[in-house]
Amino acid sequence: MRKGVLMLIAASMAAATPGAAQAQAGAPAAPADRRVDTEAGPLAVHTVAEGLVHPWGLAVLPDRRLLVTERPGRLRLVGPDGRVSPPLAGVPAVLAQSQGGLHDVALDPDFANSRVVYITYAEPGDGGASAAVARAVLGEDRLSDLKVIFRQQPKVSGGNHFGSRIVFRRDGTLFVTLGERFKFDPAQDLGTHLGKIVRIRPDGSVPADNPFVGRKDARPEIWSYGHRNPLGGALHPDTGVLWVHEMGPMGGDELNIPQAGKNYGWPLVSWGKHYDGRDIPDPPTRPEFADAVRHWTPVISPSGMAFYTADRIRGWRGSMLIGGLSSRGIVRLTLDGERVTGEERIPLGARIRHVVAGPDGEVFALTDEPNGRILRLAPPE
């Protein structure tokens, strides 16, 4: 086991893969503009950069450069001209196995002054791996002063269901979505972080008003539990309330509004079925569990989420944008309070790992491919 883990770590640190070599060359990606029809009219789809190996997380810097993670364990800067930097030094070793690797990246709310960024990743260790959160100072070619502020407990075997999105709350605390590592029952165990959403301070300490603080049978970081694999989260721009989505099993992807201390039922209830076809009781059969705001069967395989708050794309203000892996595009939802009033599918012809609303009213999307791309959607010029 230890030898295998060391081999995986070494692989994750290597940059000599075909896609990475193309990105390291530093040549701007050739334009690949096309148009896609939407309810708002046609949008131009431009390839900002390519040659990225399964890009996973994206943050837009104040100078409009993009900070992007690659799942095998690399962090890169992408200039406005599409030029991709070599891998930044100082990134911790990751378990690059199956769904595991380097995951999300988020800017500190005071990034313009502090240059602090946060990353999530699959951290190897005794017993297997777990999701971890680290903070560091971003330089031009490296991360420095890196400190791990949170480790999902316990570490377990396997490479699936890490979750790992970061969402900053308006009070300066941060939510981290955590999958149940494909272990099922621990999602109901408050003594673990598996299948939970946690809330911590930027230094990793626990806010005193977390719902399970003081309970001997519970991890104090836990905000909500009974989640399967939440791969997207965002704050509602008007209410400041956290919304998340999570992958269902065979059917039953969910959109949830996780409330403090609430149990969302996995694996005791689900809108889907087990992969072997066995039924799972539907959520309404167990009213003690919080139910989803919306669910999808067939699945969309949601990953990444953003609220659109600009006016550049007509009619999109207030919409929720969700990256779709199996649905191969962006799913746009319209909302009235906590009710979904409409859904539009924007086909992009690729698995979309993440979606980010840009500062100039554009939308960025990451394609989950060995030769992954950063796409930019905006009205045609």
Description:
The chain is mainly beta. Helices cover 6% and strands 40% of the residues. The protein contains three helices and 24 strands. The strands form six sheets. Strands 1-2-24-23-22 form a five-stranded antiparallel sheet. Strands 6-7-8-9 form a four-stranded antiparallel sheet. A four-stranded antiparallel sheet has the order 10-11-12-13, with no helix packed on it. The radius of gyration is 20 Å and the shape is globular.
Q: Which terms would index this structure?
A:
381 residues; mainly beta; 4-stranded antiparallel β-sheet; disordered N terminus; PQQ-dependent sugar dehydrogenase; Quinoprot_gluc/sorb_DH_b-prop; 6-blade_b-propeller_TolB-like
Estimate the mean pLDDT confidence: 93
- What Rg is obtained from the alpha carbons, in whole angstroms? 20 Å
Order of helices and strands: HHEEEEEEHEEEEEEEEEEEEEEEEEE
Strand order of the largest sheet: 1-2-24-23-22
Proportion of beta-strand residues: 35-45%
Structural class determined from secondary elements:
mainly beta
Distance between the termini: 55 Å
What's the helix count? 3
- Helix fraction, binned, reads under 10%
Number of DSSP-assigned strands: 24
So what's the overall shape? globular
The parts where pLDDT drops under 50 for at least 5 residues are 1-32
Largest sheet: 5 strands, antiparallel
